[in-house]
Fold each of these.
Amino acid sequence: MKLPHPIPYQGSKRSLAPLIAPYVPKKVATWYEPFAGSAAMTLWAAHNQIAERYVIGDVLAPIADLWRVIINHPDHTAARYSEVWQEQMDSDEGYFNAVRDRYNEQRDPVDLLYLICRCVKNAIRFNTKSGNFTQSRDKRRLGMRPEKMAEAILGASMLLSGKTEVYSGDWTSTLATADASDFVYMDPPYLGTTIGRDKRYAEGLPQDRLISGLENLRARNIRFALSYDGMTGGKEYGPPLPDSLGLTRLLLHAGKSSQATLVGRDEETVESLYITPDLGDAVEGVIRRQRAIQTELAF
Ligand SMILES: C[S@@+](CC[C@H](N)C(=O)[O-])C[C@H]1O[C@@H](n2cnc3c(N)ncnc32)[C@H](O)[C@@H]1O
C-alpha cells in the first residue's frame, strides 16, 4: 500500500523511510517525531502499528495547525483544498499571491496547504518577525490534484486520528514526557541548512543546542534515531556528532541528488542516521540488514 503523504515538503523523509525502518523498534508505547514537517516517518510508523500513541511537533506553529485540521477534520480540509485549488483554474496569474495575502491575514491552514503545494520546491518560507508566508509560486506546476490530496488527507487521518497529539514548539518541550518505553525519530535542520547561505528553515538549530538536547535524552535512557547531515558527491554537510554521545553512525544511500541532477551533475546523496546502542542487535547485524535493503532497492 502507498503511504498517504498529504504535505509535500522539502526535506521529507518519505523516500528514505524503508532505509530507516530496520533500525526502529517493532513495538513502543509512544512514538515521537519532534521535528515533524510532513511527518513521513510517523505516517510510516502508524501504518506499521509500531506504537499505541503518536506525538508530533514542529517549531513552526502553522505546520502544527495544518496537521491538526488534517487529522481531526479530514473531510472539511479535503473539500476546502479542492475549492481553493479549483479556483486557480478560472483565475489569473495573481491567484497564488491573493491566497498568500489571505493566508497572511486569516491564517487558514488549508490556504497554507495550497501555498505549500504550489510554491517553489515545496520549500516553505516564513518571515521571522511577522510570521507571514513569503515563498513564491512555482509557475510550472499546479500543485497536488484535489482527488489525490483527498486520498492522502483521509488516509493520514485514518492512521493518526484518536491516537495522536500535535505540539507546536521547540523539540525539547515536545519530548518533555518521553521515557524509556518510547521511541523518538528526529530529523532536525541539518547544519548546512542552519548556517551559511541556505537558511532553509526559519528556525535553525545550532549544533551545540542539538548536542545538549541529545545528552539529556541519553541520560533519560530514551531510544532514538536521528537523521543528521550527509554528503552529496563527496561534499559533507557539517561535522559529525561527538563520540561522547555513544551513538552508532550509519550511512544511508539516499539515491541520486535531485538538486545535482537539475544542474546536470550525477551525484549520490548519503545521509547519516545516528542510533542509540539499544537499537539493532549488534552493529554488524544492523549493517548486514542495511546492505540487504539497499540491494533490494537497487533492483
Ligand atoms: C528536515 S525538516 C523535517 C522533515 C520531516 N522529516 C519530513 O518528513 O517532512 C526539519 C523540521 O524541523 C523544524 N524545526 C526547526 N527547528 C526546530 C526546533 N528547534 N524544534 C522543533 N522543530 C524545529 C522545521 O520547521 C522543519 O519542519
Amino acid sequence: MPNPPDLAALLESPLARDRDAGPMQRQLHERLKRAILDGRLAPGSRLPGSRALAEALAISRNTVTAAYEHLAAEGYVQPDRQGTRVTELSSPTLPRRAGKSAGTPATARRLAAIKPGTPFAEPDAALRPGVPALSHFPIAAWRRALDRAIRTASPATLGYGNPLGEPRLRAAIARHLAIARGVRCEARQVVIAEGAQEAISLCVRLLSNPGETGWIEDPGYRGVKAAMRAGDMHMVPIRVDPEGLDASAQDWRKHPPRLIYTTPSHQYPGGSVLSIARRLALIAEARRHGAWIIEDDYDSEFRHTGEPIGAMQGLVADAPVLYIGTFSKTMFPSLRLGFLVLPAQLMAAVQAPLEEMLRGGHRHEQLAMADFIESGQFGRHLGRMRRLYRDRQQALRLALTRHLKVPHEIDGGYCGLHLTVRLPPRFDDRRIAAEALRHHLAPAALSSFSVQPLPSDNGLVLGYGNTSAELFEPLVKRLSQLARAAERSGA
Ligand SMILES: Cc1ncc(COP(=O)(O)O)c(C=O)c1O
C-alpha cells in the first residue's frame, strides 16, 4: 500500500482564505481531485484521516468530510474500514496515439478529400458572390413578424417542434412554389432545413451509400462537393456548356449515377439554363437508371429577362427530382432557412428515419417566415429586389464593357446575383482574386469552381447583389489593373 503522501506536495498550494477563492470545501475537493488525476495521489493510496487533515489545514473536520464525500460520490475515492482509498483509475495523462503523421489528430479519412475553400471575405466585401442586398432588407418588417410570432405563439413553441419543420411554413412554401416556380407538391412533402447546404447534405445521407456515384456540374457549386465527399460518394464531374449539364451516353454507361446535382434554371456559376431537351432527357435517363436528380433552385426568383423558367420538378408528374430552395438569397443568409421538396413516394419511405435524424428548431423564425409569406410582404420584397438586381446587373455589364481593359467575355445569364467574366488563360484568375481581397474586393476565381478545369474555366465570378451600382465603375477599373498585373509572363 503506498505511503500517505506529503501534504504540501498533495495540495500544491495552500487553501486560500479570501472570499473570492470560494468555499474551503470546494477548494479542497478541487485540489485532491487534481492530485488524483495528475497521478500525485496514486491509485490505492490513502487520503489522510479527516481529523488529521482538518488540524493540519486549520479547517473544520466537517469541511474535510464533505470534500471526501463529494470525491466518493464522483468515484475518485472509496471509503473502507481503514479510511478513504483512491480508486484504481486509468491514467488520463498518457500520451495519445497520434494519427499517420505524428502529432496530427486522427480524423475521418473523408475529410482529407474536402478541399479548403477561398479565404473568408466579409459579406460586405464588394462583388462577393452569393450575398443579397443586405442593406435593402426590410428589417423593421421582419422584426415585427418575429415579434408577432413570439407574442402569439403558445409557450409550447419553446419546446421541440415537428422535426420536419413548422407545418404552417411548409404549407406557405408549398403554395409559394406552386405559383412562383411551378413546383408540384403538398406541404407534407416539404422539409425545412438550415439552408440549401443542409438540404443537399440530407439528400446525400438519405439516398446514397458510401462509394456510390454522384454527378456534379463542372464548373459548379463547391458546397455540393463537400456534401458528397462527406458522404463518401464517388464524385464524377460532368461538363456544362451553354445548354447546361452535358451528360453523354458514355457518362450514363461508364459512371451510372445514384445522385445528379444540377442548377438547371441558372447554372452556378456559368449562368446557362438547362434546355428543355436536356431536362426531359435527364429525367428519362434518371428514371431508367434509378437515379435521383437534386435540383438546386438557389436564385431563380430573380430572373431579369422574359418569363420565369419553371422548375424541373414540375415538368412531369412524379419526376425523380428533389427540389431544393433557400431563403439565403430571397431573405438573408444568416437566417439559415432552406427547404427540400421530396417526391411523395420517397417522402413516405424516408419520413420515419428523417424524423429521427432531425430535431427542428428555430420555431419562431419559421413562424415569422410563414407570416412574411402569407401577408404578402415576402412577395413585395422579392419584387423590389428583382428590380434592384436587374438594374445592378445592367450597370455591371455596362461598367465591364467600358472599363475592363483586358480581353473578356461576359457570362452568367440574366438571372440571380452574379455575373461571370471569362478571361484568357494567360490571366491568373486566382492571383487576381487573392490580390482583390487586399482591396476589400471579393470576386471568386472561376477556376476554383472546377474539378477538372479547362483553359476556358478562367475568369471571375462577380456578385452584384450586395454592391451598389455607383461603385461598379471604380471597382471594375481596379479589377482591370489587377488583371493586367496578374498576366502570366511568356504566356
Ligand atoms: C448554387 C448555390 N446553392 C445554394 C446556395 C445557398 O446555400 P445556403 O442556403 O446554404 O446558404 C448558394 C449560395 O451561394 C449557391 O451558390
